[in-house]
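Sample entry follows:

:::
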Amino acid sequence: MNIDLSGKTAFVTGGSKGIGKAIAETLADCGANVGVLARGREELDATVAAINAKYPGRALAISGDVSSQDEIVDAVRETEERFGGLDLAVNNAGVTGDVGLLHETGADNWRRVMGINLDGVAYAMMAEIEAMLRAGTGSIVNIASVESHTIVRQFPAYVASKHALIGLTKATAFDYAGHGIRINTLSPGVIATPLTMADGQKAVTDRLAARIPLERLGTSKEIAASVAFLLSDLSGYTTGTDLVVDGAFLLRE
């Protein structure tokens, strides 16, 4: 059964590379128009240009920072105005922060991670939900992590932000269910992305990958396909839940 999002408009944060890029591309493949928000202009423009080369006019590049409420409100409004509404949203932007013990990484690292991973999602949802309330329907997926359910050593701010994101999603899913808006999280396992393979992070990725029962890293496309399912009417009775896509990572000994 194919996922058909024709005529829908989606908004994706952190959409210029890695999982976010794959999500934007997949939603366009399913027929949706896509507003793509990211901070890095060069990568953002390249991603949107590739989508538009395949599907002319289907993607919109928006440069902005999710930790700024003003910028995220403007980005959602720009997507609405360009495509005539907002039906779907994926809040994917996130950072791992610095590795180290809580007292070593300090307040600046804590605030930066929370500002993007938690505040940024809350700000985005405020704007997205306002748009969806006008339409009387909508579907939102917040990208969490397997670290929403366990811990990874020496990333306390990241772990805390992802645990909190599950709570935020459940609370809002309950509050807006009667308004026709579904809100879920998807928790990726260890996925091969520029973030996880970057210098300073790859050693952690390799250590975690060795413990995956499926014996491989996941791909961004696999995550994107699961996101498309959660956004679509195929999951129309699903809200307030978390879909774990991790190769059985959480079942390891």
